[in-house]
């Protein structure tokens, strides 16, 4: 906040970098937060970036690296030796961030960097964290935490906490464990402020505590942190031993990425892409769904061509295919979006039949509303015959009800089978609606108009 | 976490409530987190809920109320008098939560409740907070914070902090102000653990601090907290005086709601609805977009009827309308989703022309890919003539490029005009594509086939 990065500032910085004027650069960046400097880096070449990184203090450099986009960071890290990465970057990071960075390196460099870490304790912790799946609590957690034994007095606890706190910047929770390292509670900073020095930790700690297991999925971790309004959540192993802690900032990334992924899937984009990605990457993410949509379009064409002879008499029916399809498509997307979102935030309860019944009613209501308007417009403006108007309206209601039910059923069905329901939205449902919609339309036409 | 709410548990609880067995109910709920009890409440009637609320301690009751859905909370609060709400609910809450609850009351009850608040200091703070816009930092912030004067010694600071901390549960940051109450920095818990008692606060505080102004929008507040990985952010007035603090949990709600809203808008749902809302509310949220989509379909029909006589000769062209439209629709949604998301998370930079150029290329690439496949399929499977196949393929490329450009341009244009770009996605872009797509298709047909 509070700092506006202007074009003039960037131009001046580039100039100073070209002049290799270390002093001026340091002065310019002095008051900036690493996250702001990382934003500035978007405007610099990798060579310029590495010049700046080398100038700044290791701690700042490490923070800047963490804030960069993955691809920019990878490029930049290629400019550094394993030793430099270990001593100047990894050494300054919390273990969870260090693991994220190391995971982005090539297999060979990974081993080299770990071998170069001077703090053997940190190296061990990193190696431990590396073996956890990225999408679980183990993959999110860091080893930086403060724990006190329940048998300690508050004064001993303070002494130990000072020692433990040396390695990292911020302390938010104090965890209480027993002699077996089993997590039994927390000590709030407030308790800590208001308790006399000789009190035993075991007498004042809070034993109501939320925790997650090492293999809890990252989405469940995020849900727990949000549900219980936590700043961090401790991670335990199968024996309830405290092994790490996950902070809310890591979880916000999970929440954001999930929401973005669902949104993109609904929009027919198969990978998590960014508007700044290359055309090739964007095409790879977008073309598959377009192909599926194309097959839907061709499928609809092939159904229509089956009615071809009859349709030569009723060309007018073909004019309303877009109306039928867009209505079915819109209803299908609406229904599935609500269900997918409900499944994602856990608000969907109750049986599937009750829900389908509700969607049926909803589709019927919306369908009748639209059909009525269409009846009037087709009859008075397009001047279609009574039977053609009737065909269009009956088909509209049928197609909308059908789309509402399919849009509800497919995500719930997939979710029950363990498949991410978000993949079903967007083009998938639209495509099945395209084909089914046309089929229903012309079948109804055949019945009413008798061709 | 860690507690599974079973059907048996709920049945037993209902039974005990019917028996008015206070002791058994208290025992059953003893170990549960208020957020879990709130989840249980979904299964209880308002009458049962109010019985339980009256049984539990005020602090727990207040926490449960905060976790309920707004509508359930409103219903439940109708069962309580203004005095009960003030003494048993508001009294136990942080000011930001208290304000949220009070804002949900009727104007009359609002005044009554505020008049009944016994802690006059809290009442004043609540009245102050009530005047801020809900969507700004002022509307999100609470007054619970710990501040120390830079001229105090650490030992004085501790004494004052104990006093300030009495009213609330958790303490995460210690803010440092000068004699004018101007925010000048923070004191980390770590510093606090490792500094001797006689040191002056002014000598050890950290003057690098992120803050927001009272009228900063909630989305900007969220972005700042995420960008700088903060647990809370202080709020200052125009004179830089510290007036409140916003915690990350409040901001997570903002992030979630925004993501859900964007997603729903893209799916053509105009209000923030839930799958459990009434059919009437869902219809109100869904029907408007369906009507717009309907107009698009009728618009397409009216364009086609303009070509009617020609089309009697080329009925085959009409069969491929769904293909043209679904391709245009899918590309339009993909393009706009990426742009909307980029605008939401601030990753969109650079000029609009560069971006349009990129989308043009992307559309061309995807369009040519699809057109090639369609060319082969129409020619060999549908047996269309060379000119008809050519018409379809040229139209496909033109329509896809057009959709990509529109899908990119509209959100950026709206955003520049201060309109939420998310409203433009979904049915809006689909509908304009429906009409334009058909128009482009038949215009190209006219040129190539010469009707």
Automatic annotation (TrEMBL), chains A, B:
Family: Belongs to the SLC41A transporter family.
Ranges of residues in domain CBS: 141-204, 205-261
Organism: Faecalibacter rhinopitheci
Binding partners and assembly: Homodimer.
Ranges that cross the membrane: 287-307, 360-382, 388-414, 426-449
Gene: mgtE
Location of this chain's protein in the cell: Cell membrane; Membrane
PANTHER family (UniProt xref): MAGNESIUM TRANSPORTER MGTE
Its job: Acts as a magnesium transporter.
Lineage of source species: Bacteria, Pseudomonadati, Bacteroidota, Flavobacteriia, Flavobacteriales
Pfam families in the record: CBS (PF00571), MgtE (PF01769), MgtE_N (PF03448)
Molecular function terms, GO-annotated: magnesium ion transmembrane transporter activity; metal ion binding
NCBIfam families on file: mgtE
Stated name of the protein: Magnesium transporter MgtE
Membrane topology qualifier: Multi-pass membrane protein
